[in-house]
Design a protein that fits this description.
The structure is a single chain. The chain is an all-alpha fold. The protein has one domain (17-84). It is built from four helices and no strands. The chain has helices spanning 17-47, 49-56, 60-67, 75-84.
């Protein structure tokens, strides 16, 4: 008997913009900026690196370095990636203890 395993993808099945926003928000809430980067990595890989590079105006090789954790992106790069996925950054008021 042969055991067949399917590759697990974190962002698999997340298709609507609302689901993607909740997904990224959860990563940001749990892990801060590093968590947001992890969530972005999964979504960009699911969407496709070539498509995301074209939509964001980023060099494909640079995007590979970001996704491979070889370099930490600048704020402007994160903003470009979010826009390529159809999102924008916003600031919210929160209560500080």
């Amino acid at each position: 008997m042969t055991l067949h395993l399917n590759e697990f993808t974190f962002a698999q099945g997340i298709e609507t913009k609302e689901d993607m926003a909740l997904y990224l928000s959860a990563f940001l809430e749990e892990g801060g900026i590093d968590g947001l980067l992890v969530g972005l990595r999964y979504l960009v890989k699911e969407k496709g690196i070539t498509d995301t590079a074209q939509l964001s105006g980023l060099n494909r090789q640079h995007l590979h370095r970001i996704l491979g954790k070889q370099t930490k992106p600048k704020f402007e790069t994160v903003d470009k990636l979010l826009h390529a996925l159809g999102f924008k950054m916003a600031v919210e008021v929160v209560e500080v203890a």
